[in-house]
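Q: Got a minute? One more chain.
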Amino acid sequence: QVQLVESGGGLVQAGGSLRLSCAASRSIFSMNAMGWYRQAPGKQRELVAAITIGGSTKYADSVKGRFTISRDNAKNTVYLQMNSLKPEDTATYYCRAEFWNYWGQGTQVTVSS
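A: Always. Here it is, folded:
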């Protein structure tokens, strides 16, 4: 049973923007901090950004000032706004319910130079 559903990935030129969305069930969303992770080919999965239930955020150094994580509690959805994209941002992006360790299926982001 799919609990987290990501969308919004795609192909974009360097310097462009994308917004990823992750929709969750109400029970998952209301009881979990939410995180966005990414995994590039041949590399380990890494945390990109996370947001607590109360809205506190943290970011990987590589995306600070370019990416913004937010959550809409009414829609049970977490977003990742990605601006000033770079080729090194190319990866599969996953959302995760942090406390329950549920993962989405991933969405591909490709940034061309």
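A: The radius of gyration is 13 Å.
Q: Perfect, thanks.
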